[in-house]
Design a protein that fits this description.
Strands 6-5-4-7-10 form a 5-stranded mixed sheet. The chain has a 5-stranded mixed sheet with strand order 13-12-11-14-15, sandwiched between helices. A 3-stranded antiparallel sheet has the order 1-3-2. The chain is globular, with a radius of gyration of 22 Å. It starts with 20 loop residues before the first helix and ends in a 6-residue tail after the last helix. Strand 12 and strand 13 form a beta hairpin. The longest helix has 19 residues. The protein contains 11 helices and 15 strands. It is of the alpha/beta class.
């Protein structure tokens, strides 16, 4: 196998061991500074650490190959300051998106940039052993000949599941997965650390990281300042939500938050794969199958309005392959429902904005890679 698991190697940098608070602060500033770099003095000023502490941390990062000189910058007095940058290629994370009918795998460097990608068909109902073997084979194929340092594999797939233990629950339409220890199975097969989360949570984490850097919520019709709360609604082969509240992904006490698709909005509605009737997922997908995209968008809008009313979030982002095929119709339809709800409630500052989520078709896979990368920079959660 042509890749290096640095966490198990006798030599080289142990990236996962660098997840101390101070090192994460410094690494994050190095990453956001880009190729232009940042000086030790600036690092001390922006982290609140002493210059001595910053020097010690950056010396360790340079020794481990994570930081390098990016030139010198003129000083207001004395000699020019040396600036440092993150060495993006010093480590990589694999993001694996297991959908009901396809698998997408990406390789990301430390900045989150995708450097390699694969996508092939998958049958999630083929059985645990077959799916694990297929997924592992795609990871190995992606990494073949790369010779890169791999932190591990982040896996995203439909829920519900136990994020902490990496154990699946009764995935809608695939009850045979209930209780399967996916994290341990893949880790044992690949020999690298594995983190498992719902597809919607992974995507929401990836969006949150992008937002902090590019400010998707800081322009247009969203109030300026940090975007602390949003909902990512994913409509593809199923429907779910990823919630960011207070700046972090909200998974709930039992990691079950975001089962958005199975809220009942029509008591006598059509049966859903979860066993209930009239779930928003069943209604949305049935409308799409009939070609009634406008109706599907309005149904999704009703659910989104319920979510906005319940959580008072700042922004609704739409993603998933079904949305991608009809972006304008879904943004318009969901937005219209939110506008009507805001008008009826007499909201002074208008409706919560609705946008297409960044990331496109590989957004979930990129978010899955962030399950490994974000904690390294102090932006993720255990």
């Amino acid at each position: 196998m042509a890749y290096v698991n640095r966490t198990n190697a006798e030599s080289g940098v142990n990236l996962l061991a660098l997840r101390s608070h101070n090192a994460a602060l410094v690494l994050d500033l190095l990453r956001t500074a880009g190729e232009g770099g940042i000086s030790r003095l600036e690092l001390a000023e922006r982290t609140g650490l002493t210059p001595q502490a910053v020097s010690k941390i950056t010396a360790r990062l340079r020794a481990d190959g994570l930081a390098a000189e990016a030139g010198r910058r003129a000083s207001t007095g004395g000699k020019p300051r040396t600036v440092l940058r993150l060495v993006a290629e010093a480590g990589h994370a694999v993001g694996l998106h297991l959908d009901r009918d396809e698998v997408t795998v990406v390789l990301c460097d430390l900045t989150g940039a995708v450097v390699a990608e694969r996508r092939v068909p998958l049958d999630l109902g083929a059985g645990a052993e077959a799916v694990v073997e297929s997924a592992a084979g795609e990871v190995e194929a992606l990494l073949a000949g790369a010779g890169v340092s791999v932190l591990g594999v982040g896996v995203a797939l439909p829920g519900p599941l136990d994020h902490v233990r990496g154990v699946l629950h009764r995935v809608t339409g695939f009850p045979e997965w209930d209780g399967f220890p996916l994290r341990d199975a893949l880790a044992g097969r690949l020999g690298v650390p594995v983190v498992v989360d719902k597809d919607t949570n992974a995507a929401a984490l990836g969006i949150a990281v992008v937002e902090r850097e590019s400010g998707i919520g800081k322009t247009g019709d969203v109030s300026p300042g940090p975007l602390e709360s949003f909902a990512y609604l994913h409509l593809g082969t199923g429907l779910g939500a990823g919630l960011v509240i207070g700046g972090g992904v909200h998974r709930g006490a039992r990691t079950g938050a975001g089962e958005f698709g199975h809220q009942v909005i029509q008591l006598d509605g059509p049966p859903c794969g979860c066993g209930n009737r009239g779930c928003i997922e069943a209604l949305c997908l049935a409308a799409v199958d009939r070609g009634a995209v406008g109706e599907a968008a309005r149904v999704l809008g009703v659910g989104a309005a319920n979510l906005v009313g319940l959580l008072d979030i700042d922004l609704v982002l739409l993603g998933g392959r079904t949305v991608a095929a009809h972006e304008e119709a879904f943004v318009r339809g969901v937005g219209a429902v939110l506008e009507e709800r805001a008008r009826l409630e007499g909201v002074d500052d208008g409706a919560i904005p609705v946008r297409v989520a960044p990331g496109g078709a590989r957004g979930v896979a990129e978010g899955a890679a962030q399950l490994l990368l974000a904690p390294l920079f102090g932006r993720g959660e255990d």
